Each structure stands twice: as C-alpha cells, then as structure tokens.
Amino acid sequence: MAVEQELINVAPEKLTVDNVSKSFRGRQGMVQALANVSLQVREGEFVCLVGRSGCGKSTLLNIIAGLEAPDGGQVLADGKPVTGPGRDRMVMFQESALFPWLDVMGNVMFALKLKPNLNNQERREVARYYLKLVGLEKFAHANIHELSGGMKQRVALARALAPNPRVLLMDEPFAALDALTREQLYGDLQRIWQERRKTIIFVTHNVREAVCLGDRVVLFSPSPGRIREQFDIPLPRPRDINSIALAGHSTQITQALKQYLGTPAAEVAE
Amino acid sequence: MKRWLSAAAFFTILAAVWEILVQIGVWPHVLIPPPSEVVRYLVRAVSDHTLLDSSHITLRRLVLGYSAGLVIGLPLGLLNARFKVLQDTLGLVALGLQTLPSVCWVPLALLWFGQTEHAMFFIVIMGTVWSVMLATDTGVRNVPPLYARAAQTMGSRGLHTWLKVILPASLPFIVSGMKQGWAFAWRSLMAAEIYVTILTGFGLGHLLHYGRELHAMDQVIGIMLVIIGIGLLADKILFSPIERFLHRRWGTARH
Ligand SMILES: Nc1ncnc2c1ncn2[C@@H]1O[C@H](COP(=O)(O)OP(=O)(O)OP(=O)(O)O)[C@@H](O)[C@H]1O
Ligand SMILES: [Mg+2]
Hints:
Chain A has about 270 residues and is α/β, with parallel strands linked by helices. Chain A has eight helices and ten strands. A six-stranded mixed sheet of chain A has the order 6-7-8-3-9-10, with helices on both faces. Chain A is globular. By secondary structure, chain B is mainly α. Chain B has twelve helices and no strands. Chain B is globular. The interface of A and B includes residues 99 and 111 of A. Adenosine-5'-triphosphate binds near residues 26, 51, 53 and 56 of chain A.
C-alpha cells in the first residue's frame, strides 16, 4: 500500500557545511553574516546552534535549506551539493508560516499535494497520521487563527514532517511560546525525533533548550558569524529540562558563550 | 439593537424637522420638497415600475462595467507586482489615472463612442480598473515573504506558488480593492448616466437628470436617496462583512 510505503522511515541525511561564507549589503555597508563556517552533522544527529542575535544562525539554516545561496563554500546533503530547496530538507520557522486560508488539514496537505505517486485519499491518511503524531488529530478542521501559539507550532511541525524529509531545519520554533507549552513540546519533539529518525538542526537563543534537545551544541559568535566551540551532550533521553545534570552542562556552555562575547549576562538566557 | 434604535430615532427626528421647516414655510417648497412628497414620489415610481426598471438598467450597467474592470484590473495588478518593468511604466500610468475623477472621461467617451452604451461602459471601466489594479498590486506586495519561502521548501514553484500562495495570501487586500473599485464604478456610472443621454435605457442617473430638467425636486431628492441606498447596501451587506472576515482570519486586521 502506498500509505505504508509513504510512512516508512527514510534514512536521515548526513550534512556537510563546507567553508560557507555569506555577506549581505545592509544600510551600513556590507555585513558578513557567515565567515568560513564548516560543520559536520551525522545522519540522525540532533544539533543545536546557539549564539546571540545576528551571528548568522538563520542565514546558515536558510543556506542549508537551499533558500539562499552562499557566496563561497557549499553545503552537501549526503555528499550531493545543495542547489535549491528540496523536500528532503524541511524548514520550521520561528513564526509558524502556516497558511491562514487553509484549515489545519489543508496546511498539512499542502506539501503532500505536491508529492506525486499518492492519491488524495492516501494523502489525507498520511496527514492524519502526522496530526496524530503531534497530538492534534481532533483539530484537523480548525482554522489557523483559532489556534494557540503552541498548537500552531505543532501544526507547523506536522506540516514539516508530512513530506517525510530526511532533515528537519528548525529556526527558533518555540521562542514565542510560554515556558510550560515549551516544556511539553521538548518532550514531544524528542519522542518524534526518536520515532521518525531525522537529522535535526535546531537554532535557539536558549542554552538550556539546546542542552535539553541536542546531541551536540554548537556555539556561534557574531561579526563575522563563525563557529567558536562545540559541546557534546552525552545525557540519556528523554531529558527533562529541569534536571540537575542538564543544568550543569548549560552553566558550562553559558559561561563559554559569555566569554566569547564579552557581553553582559543579560544578553543570553540560560 | 440599541444602535439600530438610536439610528432609527435620529432619522425619524431628521425627517420630522425637515417636514415641519417646509410646512411652516422656513424652507421654500419649490426648492426643497418635504419628505412626505419625496415618499409619495417614490411610491408612485415604484407602482408605475419606473424606479424598478431604471434600477435594473443601472445595476446591469454597473455589474457589467465593474466585472470588466475586475477582469482587466486583477491580472494587471498581479503582473504589475511581478514585473518591475511594468511597475515603472504601467504602474505610473495607473497611479496617474486613478487620481483622475471619472467625470473627466466623459468628453473623450462621447467623442469616441457617441451617445451610446459603449460610452458608459467605457467610463465605468476607466473608473474601476486602476483602483482595482493598484489594490491588487499592494495586496501582493503585502504578502509576507515567509509564505512563499515555506511553500518553496515544500516543493512549490513558479505558477503554483502564485496561484496557491501569493494570490490567496493577498485576498484580504484584493477584496478591499474590489470594494474601493465598486465605489468608484458607482460614482463613474452616475456621472456617465447624467452626461450620456441615450435612448437604449433610462437609468437612475437619467431620472435624476430629467428630474432637474422638469424641476421635479421630489424626483431629484427621491432618486438621490435611492442612489445612496444602493451604495450603502453594497458596502454594508456585500463588501464590508467579507473584508472584515478575511482580515480577521488572515491576521491582517489593521486595528
Ligand atoms: N536579507 C538580508 N539582508 C541584509 N542583511 C541581512 C539579511 N539577512 C540577514 N542579514 C544580516 O546578517 C546577519 C546575520 O543574520 P541572521 O538572521 O542569520 O542572524 P541570527 O543569528 O539568525 O539572529 P537572530 O538570533 O536574531 O535570529 C545580521 O547582521 C543581519 O542583519
Ligand atoms: Mg534568526
């Protein structure tokens, strides 16, 4: 059956960011958003990018997504250069970017409708599977403006998962949510990641969040944006953001972050 | 309910004061007929079918001209937003012509088409097209770029992105433009009917015009009220609710 085939876990992708640079022409002249950034991400790895505002995290994510082209260097997905957006790499943005003219089901179906080899019946079945995965099967016919912020991000997650990508790129997806909703989503995201085996790159300002979710935390520093240090997080899963072991790691990383920036502690949320 | 009551009370008092001022001779009867006579005229016009026939003729012209205006204006707006070359050429023309009151098209229309339906059709289209085009253009420019990017990552490209993302995303602004276009079309048609005197159909504008010629002030004021009524009805019943609904659901409400 096509539906079962569609729902089979695809192998996660290995990502190689090779010496990528990118500049923008801003109002105050050229801004170098990324300078010679190199990063290896194993298949199925959960990597968190942390760094203060403006150090090029979103830019890097957009380049990996293929939404922007680097000035120099390249990104390889399973050894093949990325030349444009592709369904193997789905993006979840900070604002949900859901389409308000479609209902929840319609949003998840949008990506599926662009996939050949499925009929509409099968597409709906696949969409229902993912809505269930994010716990929203009861809201299939709700309108987007009726949902809370947390529910919107769940729909966005379902929509990103629906084409069965091999990589999930998440740009501060939970930044606008309250702490309790966020904690729930940490649990759900870890569960879904283990169930669906994806390579995930997750951008955040929140060091604790990064430690809670990532196999590895990558520190960025700004002007020009570059990678400063990387931390492996060998904690068992599922992780609880309030655990003491987790707090130890995040204190260490926060200190490293402050040291690179030479900025007051208030700039980085621990 | 309370708002309805206060509105009703206001208009009743207005009519009463007007009636009294005319009856006791403060306002001259020949220039301002009392509301009772206006109502009597309207009743007469309804019972001998002149009002209904004229409204019918006028609305048919309006719907035809307006539809043509939309059919031309919408694609022009989309193209204008898509191609910079158009924006710097046709866009400027539209901007200029939109500021031109539609009565100004009358002399040209009469020279080109004579006293014909075509002349009126032309005037209504000219009154509609530019505002619809510019509103569509603005609507498309107001679409958050994030929508198109999200669609691209899901495999949407080119025409698919335009039809399934950009167009629906700009719908609230397009409907605002359609509402404005409707108002312009209505004004243009009234100008056209007053200035283009033809025998192929007596519209509301013609009734107004002949009311003046015959010095039938009850007719002039009665028809003016009908024209106001039709304008209000289209706005309050058709466009405003749709516009409000879309802006709320799309999250583009501006208040
Ligand atoms: N389209 C653009 N045009 C001009 N400058 C840009 C553009 N996109 C990014 N920049 C600049 O590049 C730098 C890096 O931006 P980027 O959005 O990648 O940072 P970020 O790390 O994601 O920041 P934040 O944490 O605030 O999201 C910033 O200085 C920004 O001003
Ligand atoms: Mg960012």
